[in-house]
Amino acid sequence: MKLKHQQTSFGRHETFPLRVGWLPKSLMALRQDADVFNQHEQAMRTLGVGRNMVKAIQYWLRVCNLVEFDTKQNAAPACITALGDALLGERADPYLEDDATLWIIHWLIASNAEMATGFFWFFNRFAAPRFKDADALLAMKDFAATELHLTTRAETTLKSDISTLLRLYAAVPGRTDEHLDALLAPLGLVEADPDGGYRSPRTSRPFMPQLALDFALAQRFAAEPDLQALPVRSILYAEGAWAAPGAVFRLNEEGLMTQLERLIATRPDQYALRDTAGLHQLFWRDRERRPEPLAVLRDYYRRYFL
């Protein structure tokens, strides 16, 4: 599936990274009053944020597909999605206490090529293990121009995506807003380099929770009903508009294979690795039933939170 410029967007986060507490607090507010986002003044009071932050919160809720908003003039109440309930519901992780939940949130952002194109690009296409802000900006501009044909895209918009991403993923010593902005820093996917700039290498990541890859693969297989197998290479490296779990989770080949073997060991009736015509592939074994991403989440939180 090719990435098309009509289905991409940059800089819609109002320059605010997804902050600590925004998702849990928003879903709790929506459970009490589904109309809370229909009036900005009401949302500002309830969430304790400014007008632009309300827009940013709505954006992040949509990127993660946790809430559906009616954008019409006489808007209907917002609706928490089944994914929102499965991930941050009262029977899941409503207070964002488990690091595994952060890995899922990361996947939801970095795999959303349409609504978070800059984040999708960084984790799926930008391969530099060490870089500076200017390097990333130059590479993103080239991507926007050559692949998306967005030659008129404002540099300030692309720059805001780079800045927002780095604030979300990298804890920088001495930055006063670090405790608010760097929600996904605990994942260690992007780190400040002591010699200047940033690091984002592919590693084996032995402490990455199995849930992350389990959910990502379930979403990938569920998205194409006729898909029976994925080449391991396409799990490791992104193609077109499909996100690659190996790239999004910054796994090297050894790390990905270890994670896949662990997944197969726990789900031998569902997944299998096979060599077919010289191609190493991950097969979905159950032809009668497709993967259910929400069931993966519910099974995890039922075991760990109840």
Notes on the structure:
The mean pLDDT is 91. A hairpin with a 5-residue loop joins β4 and β5 (198-199). With 306 residues, the chain is mainly alpha-helical. The termini are far apart. The strands form three sheets. A three-stranded antiparallel sheet has the order 3-5-4. The protein has helices at residues 22-32, 40-47, 51-63, 82-88, 99-110, 117-124, 133-146, 155-169, 178-181, 210-223, 232-236, 245-248, 253-266, 293-305; strands spanning 67-68, 79-80, 130-131, 191-192, 198-199, 229-231, 271-276, 279-284. 36% of the residues are buried. Helix content is 46%, strand content 8%. α7 (133-146) crosses α8 (155-169). It folds into three domains: 21-95, Arc Repressor Mutant, subunit A; 98-201, no CATH class; 210-305. The longest helix has 15 residues, at 155-169. This is DUF4007 domain-containing protein. Residues 10-301 form the DUF4007 domain.
Task: Provide keyphrases for this structure.
DUF4007 domain-containing protein, 14 helices, Arc Repressor Mutant, subunit A, 306 residues, DUF4007, 3-stranded antiparallel sheet, mainly alpha, globular
Structure in a nutshell:
The chain contains 14 helices and 8 strands. With 306 residues, the protein is mainly α.
Q: What is the global morphology? A: globular
Mean pLDDT: 91
Poorly predicted sequence stretches spanning 5 or more consecutive residues = none
> From the helix content, strand content and strand pairing, which structural class follows?
mainly alpha
In total, how many domains does the architecture comprise?
3
Q: Reading side by side through the largest sheet, how are the strands ordered?
A: 3-5-4
Protein name: DUF4007 domain-containing protein
Organism: Thiorhodovibrio winogradskyi
